[in-house]
């Protein structure tokens, strides 16, 4: 639901369906959401297409009646089978109307606050936590940066593009970035809050920019540090970083050349390669073709946690802001 927040807040009313439980294999994880607006417009997805039509009808009903619905779809269910849930699993979907407290929670999340919301339906209480979007810091205002910013935003990152050259670092050149900063990369990074979810991608392949910012980045507990460049550039960069005093353990965290081997060459293809490595690292993927593996396809992050029934009245939504 957090991914839909900006659109939901722009609608004067809506019904939103959220996946609150998954058993077995299912196309979308717990927390996936789809919403229907006042004119019947729909955004999001709860099943990748399998049960969207059924859930859409439920959302329209809830939008009209304001009565919450908790529905289960599974392979053995005749209705679910008819609409295409043939992946072998089952899922529970909670459908509810907008409320002032839900809108307040969505707004707090958009404003960058960590939020926890609780919903009750049919004697079950569900908790969903929304953390601020992870940050993607892109250093180097080159053509590749525009593509990386676009795919980074698509993946849910808060994207910043930074370069010391004002003529290149402009919002017009990077419309997908949330912010464009004119500053020396290492100075900006030194003054910027980062955490264990932050990703840094260095695209300049110019030592006067690369080395200082990578020294700073590799000294922090970041989720991802990658740098673009040819094999020769990357080898020279490693030598310079060693000369700058970066230890072998820190150098082992540097992903350079950044990206998975997809064979692409264009800025867009390079951005897909970088994004693929980001996603693989973030979720513990192998980067191998799924057809060559026998392990489960979907890893289900528990963004929704089923809690025990408590004293919340049915139909309530409790907002808790952390930090």
Automatic annotation (TrEMBL):
Every XdhC Rossmann domain range: 136-278
Question: Domain named XdhC- CoxI: which ranges?
Answer: 13-74
Under the heading Gene3D superfamilies, the entry gives: NAD(P)-binding Rossmann-like Domain
InterPro entries from the xrefs?
Answer: MoCofactor_Util/Proc, XdhC_CoxI, XdhC_Rossmann_dom
Tell me where on the tree of life, at the top rank, the source sits. Answer: Bacteria
Provide the protein name. Answer: Xanthine dehydrogenase accessory factor
Q: Which species is listed as the source? A: Lentzea flava
* Organism placement in taxonomy: Bacteria, Bacillati, Actinomycetota, Actinomycetes, Pseudonocardiales
């Amino acid at each position: 639901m957090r991914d839909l927040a900006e659109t939901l807040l722009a609608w004067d009313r809506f019904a939103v369906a959220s996946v609150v439980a998954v058993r077995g294999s299912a196309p979308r994880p717990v927390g996936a959401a789809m919403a229907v607006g006042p004119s019947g417009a729909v955004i999001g997805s709860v099943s990748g297409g399998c049960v969207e039509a059924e859930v859409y009808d439920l959302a329209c009903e809830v939008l009209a009646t304001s009565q919450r619905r908790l529905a289960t779809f599974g392979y053995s269910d005749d209705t679910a089978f008819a609409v295409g849930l043939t992946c072998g699993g089952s899922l529970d979907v909670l459908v509810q109307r907008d409320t002032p407290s839900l809108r307040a929670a969505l707004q707090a999340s958009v404003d960058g606050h960590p939020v926890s919301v609780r919903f009750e339906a049919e004697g079950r209480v569900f908790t969903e936590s929304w953390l601020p979007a992870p940050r993607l810091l892109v250093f180097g205002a080159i053509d590749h940066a525009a593509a990386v910013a676009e795919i980074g935003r698509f993946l849910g990152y808060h994207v910043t593009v930074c370069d010391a050259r004002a003529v290149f670092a402009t919002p017009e050149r990077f419309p997908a970035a949330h912010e464009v900063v004119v500053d020396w990369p290492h100075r900006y990074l030194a003054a910027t809050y980062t955490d264990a979810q932050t990703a840094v991608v260095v695209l300049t392949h110019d030592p006067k920019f690369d080395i200082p910012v990578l020294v700073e980045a590799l000294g922090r507990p970041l989720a991802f540090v990658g740098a673009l460049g040819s094999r020769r550039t990357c080898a020279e960069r490693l030598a310079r970083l060693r000369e700058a005093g970066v230890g072998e353990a820190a150098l082992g965290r540097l992903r350079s050349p950044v990206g998975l081997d997809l064979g692409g060459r264009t800025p867009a293809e390079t951005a897909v390669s970088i994004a693929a490595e980001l996603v693989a690292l973030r979720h513990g993927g192998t980067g191998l073709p799924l057809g060559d593996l026998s392990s489960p396809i979907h890893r289900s992050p528990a963004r929704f946690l089923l809690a025990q029934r408590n004293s919340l009245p049915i139909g309530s939504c409790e907002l808790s802001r952390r930090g």
